[in-house]
Amino acid sequence: MTNGPPPDLEQESLAHDAVGVSVQVRELTATDMSAFRILRAEALRAHPEAFIPGPDEGRSRLLTTMTLRVRNHWMMNGSFLLGAFRENHLVGAVGVLRGVRAKQRHTALVWMLYTEPQVRGQGIARTLLLAAIDRCRRDPDLELLRLSVGNESQAARQLYTSLGFEVYGREPRALKLADRYVDILLMTLDVDTG
Predict the structure, then answer these.
(1) 49 burial via Cβ count (<10 Å: 0-12, 13-18, 19+)
(2) Residue 46's pLDDT is what?
(3) Residue 76: CB partners within 8 Å, gap ≥ 6?
(4) Residue 82, beta-bridge partner list
(5) Nearest to 43 by CA among 125, 126, 158
(6) How far apart are CA 124 and CA 85, in angstroms?
(7) Which of 27, 92, 112, 163 has the most CB within a 10 Å radius?
(8) What is the pLDDT of residue 122?
(9) Which of 3.20.20.300, 3.90.1150.10, 3.40.630.30, 2.60.40.10 would CATH assign to domain 12-138?
(10) Measured between alpha carbons, how far is 140 from 122 in angstroms, rounded to an integer?
(11) β-pairing verdict for 181-190 and 80-86
(12) Are 106 and 139 in contact (CB under 8 A)?
């Protein structure tokens, strides 16, 4: 692993998506929670096969409750939430949750990766995930990054595989939707580059 200090919370990066439009990737703050709540609610509603919480579970959470959860759980002890902004509009997010127990601190979990439908195919999800992987690689104690993906989410699986994630397991019928079951593939990436 790189022996550099953890990234500054205010660090921002600029990337250009596939159509050449500037996309700002930065850590989300309390002022971004209203936009994040809308983005997450859209994700839960539009893709029930990709997220464990249902749309009603996400909608019932008050903004103040979500802000507290983000600050006290999703953005502490090495966990973080990055957003992709185009012209100051949140168009995507990735969340990484660090293992909290001593025996799991060498691992982290990508618990969310989502982009708005109108920006898909423009490299924004890739940009977000690369920023998350880079941040994980700069943490000298982090070794493994894990995620889970629905078997029917082909584009997501292709993205993860292209970035080096490998399938290490399958959870059959992990999600039960109204009309079908969804198998979940478990994937991992070794971020310990040292």
Answers:
(1) middle
(2) 75
(3) none
(4) 27, 94
(5) 125
(6) 10
(7) 92
(8) 93
(9) 3.40.630.30
(10) 31
(11) unpaired
(12) no
Which residue matches tokens 């209203």? 34
Q: What is the 3-class SS of the chain, one letter each residue?
A: CCCCCCCCCCCEEEEECCCCCEEEEEECCHHHHHHHHHHHHHHHHHCCCCCCCCHHHHHCCCHHHHHHHHHHHHCCCCCEEEEEEECCEEEEEEEEEECCCHHHCCEEEEEEEEECHHHCCCCHHHHHHHHHHHHHHCCCCCCEEEEEEECCCHHHHHHHHHCCCEEEEEEEEEEECCCCEEEEEEEEEECCCC
Question: What are the per-10-residue average pLDDT scores of the chain (194 residues)?
Answer: 35 49 88 90 80 57 55 70 95 94 93 94 96 95 95 93 97 91 96 74
Pairing of strands 144-150, 181-190: antiparallel
- Shortest CA distance to 55 belongs to which of 82, 76, 37? 37
For residue 172, the Cα-to-chain-centroid distance in whole angstroms is: 23
The answer to whether the predicted template modeling score (pTM) of the entire model surpasses 0.70 is yes
Name the token pair of 56. Answer: 């009603």
